[in-house]
Amino acid sequence: xxxxxxxxxxxxxxxxxxxxxxxxxxxxxxxxxxxxxxxxxxxxxxxxxxxxxxxxxxxxxxxxxxxxxxxxxxxxxxxxxxxxxxxxxxxxxxxxxxxxxxxxxxxxxxxxxxxxxxxxxxxxx
Length: 125
Description:
Number of strands: 3
Number of helices: 4
Distance between the termini: 10 Å
Largest sheet: 3 strands, mixed
Helix content: 40-55%
């Protein structure tokens, strides 16, 4: 059985589908805010369970990100998780400085929601 976990997302599809079975934190905002929330939770002792840059989609192309972290907190900050999230934030900012996330139409936004949800759903199953 999979360990108890927390899902942090700004993806409405991920939130809708995962909130039934997992603690899910919905962020109404930019991908950057998802990364920052995860970083803050890592500082509190949670560990990353999925890579923040999962997928081959450039971070400045998709408006959605779902990240899985441990439910249980360790006594200390997990340095490997912190290094990964800080590097992911730096990568996101680098790509955003080149080109911001485009304003996609609703159909394209939904496609990005499905891709993001499907990646995490497969990782959990």
